[in-house]
Amino acid sequence: MKRLMLIATLLLAAFTASADHVKVRLYSTTSISTLNISFDLGSYNLYGISAKGGEIQLLEDMVSEGRSVLVYTEGNQLHVSVNEDDLGLFHSLRLEATDTACILCLNPVGNDANAPGAKQRTYEGDLEVGMLPDGSLCIVNDVEFETYIAGVTQSEIYGHHSDIFRIQAIISRTWALRNINKHASDGYNFCDQVHCQAYLNRCIRPDIMMGTIQSSGETLVDSTGALIETPFHSNSGGQTANSEDVWRAALPYLRSVPDTFSFRMRQSDWTRTIPIDRWLNYFSRTHKLNTSDSTVLDSLLHFTQESRRARLLGVPLTRVRSDMQLKSTFFSVTPDSASGNVILHGHGYGHGVGLSQEGAIRMVTLGYSYDSILFHYYTGAVIHHDPTANHSYVEHYADRLAHIIDEDSRKQTQVRSKKDDWLGRLFRLRDREEREEIYIEAEQDNEQDWQYEW
Fold it and tell me: What gap in Å lies between CA 301 and CA 332, rounded to an integer?
């Protein structure tokens, strides 16, 4: 039985009727055949399913730190063992957390460990492992929705101010609720890559969790109350793009706006050098432009964008960006006859539609409120506050989390262990509070087991 059931109802408490848990496929762009699963916090029950739709069998209970589960493909089944104890072959398996404060660690092993994107990761919640048609593992995290949002926020943006994370959490939550069934035909809700939203680890930073908590129950809607699309990108380069200039639909809340806040940031500017012959051949062969025509030639070699444009001689700049692997469509072209190259002077990074993350970071540091930042990038949008979100829980545990953040800031140089994780510390505080209410002081012989020591 899960003791506290906290992450959703206690830490964040911001679920809607449509999503309190989500299933997210992990390592979705990597073929993995062998996985080692270890445990950083709490314990898990391990279940095996012998056939599709078959009976669920408890294989091991209370698997925790010091033990590991090894899973690898064998024919069309999964071979499962715990600490070298062979448990047999199964169609699929499930690791189910016995408490809310549980963390598991995923380690692709063997040749899989060298595959792109196969780094070690940690996650909260439950884990399901099955097999894909190509014989590789399908690894799915069954996790509380808001815990997922915190992990996405950590994966998608950088910074050190809670409002930055609040903003990212709101747009990530809005996108997730609007696209909750994106991978329904595959048996899960989302993948862990930018095809959906990056979800490359559990949230390990308490300040990011704090920003997510502060956004509890908040989403972006249009004038009719419908959830909006909330695309975002790294840096606009000084001006965001209209949605129809990148995709097909012209959406009223995704309008091009001036964005000087994106200047002088990490991804503000870029330069790319391309041989003139390659540049001209690309347009003549791929887009059938007559590059021997002096007017066409001049346009291709002396292209400027003082403000964003969607096309170059009728060619969509989104296509040029994709084919040439450019950082953005916001660039100008000048020839360098001495070297035989064209030089692309570009601005920004990403598709340019919606929120510029680095612009938002700059606005936060300048003192703009989180809502005014969202309204700057999403024209006419409204923040909807979900009245069903349990804000009393949020406020109560935000105080505890603020204490942990303050404690960390004062002890930055100290070496920490897995037991220093904010989640474990928060739950120990909760347990001690409840035990002081329930137990007689003389009977609290093991209180020192829960004391937090640096």
Answer: 9
